[in-house]
Design goal:
Elements: E1 5-7, H1 22-32, E2 39-42, H2 54-67, E3 73-77, H3 83-96, E4 100-104, H4 115-128, E5 133-137, H5 139-142, H6 148-154, E6 160-165, H7 170-179, E7 185-190, H8 198-207, E8 215-216, H9 217-220, E9 232-234, E10 237-244, E11 247-250, H10 256-261, E12 266-268, H11 276-287, H12 291-311, H13 313-323, H14 340-350
Parallel strand pairs: 1-12, 2-3, 3-4, 4-5, 5-6, 6-11, 11-12
Antiparallel strand pairs: 7-10, 8-9, 9-10
Amino acid sequence: MLLHGIFPPITTPFYPDGNVYHKKLEANVERYSRTPSAGIVVLGSTGEAILLSDQERRDVLKTALDAAAPNKVMVAGTGIESASETIKLTEYAAELGYDAAMIRTPHYYKKQMLAANIVAFYRTVADCSPLPLVIYNFPQATGYDIPAELVIELANHPNIIAIKESSGNLEKVKVMVEGTRHVKRSATVTETFDAVTPRMLNAAATDSSNGGPLVSVETLGGAAKPSSSAITVIGKLKTRHKEVGFQVMVGAAHQLEPSLAMGAVGAILAFACPAPMACYEIYAAIKDGDTALAREKQDRVKLAALRVVSELGVPGVKYAMDLNGYYGGASRLPFLPLTADLKSGIEKLMAGIKS
């Protein structure tokens, strides 16, 4: 599965009384669906997943998927400390129709999280999971930083397709990119090399008006040899295949340009919640080979990303969303409301940054 591009790890909106505000969640997802973001991550750290009940997690997953555009890759955050509970939530996400699962590193029993423990955890979940897995490393929150050599080892598992590396360690990104180059896989993509998932294929087959079999354009033209350029038609969807390796994604917006330059293929960025366009423009410039433009656009958002996301966290992200037309609202305790001075600072930093 292709995970190239920018993914906002969306927030969970709440009513003033603390209940999940599903209508605002729907509205946010619908708006993200109209951006150039490649997909949406639900129940990441920015989604306050760890502060939700099990039923709330399930309800949020359903609401977000139902509101999303069919062409967006949908990733469910399903990581829980135990392998068994992680598998259960991942299976539920698969039943709903999610395309992949993002699973944070278990971390509560830090001293016991040795290499053997982490490898066993991810391999067990990957063996049982009906969805391909994205490892999620966020040591600033978990206090555990998965070593690059473990990621390289886990990358050989056929059901572990990517990592979201949020440590901000550029050298580690480079090591993981280099160390996983041997992994070769094939992903279904559109004619223009956008991601295609099994959910999208099923929808295309269902929408097909003729109900006929899959048709290869090369076959229609008399060519018999399959190749990555072969076009397959499913309903109104034309697909081909693209070779992809293990996909290294990053989670630090203030380092997006250098991370992409080192071989990261995309990013899951909290700063993309208030500013998906600004983040996408950096990615697009790199894709177009315009390094100077990418650096210019990176410089425009660097300070805001550092302050809003890295320093102020979820409350900062939510207030920046409010400024840019999304619904941010309040966060759950132990988060506290921002002071007037902090809000004023965010307003200055976000002035002119595209949403």
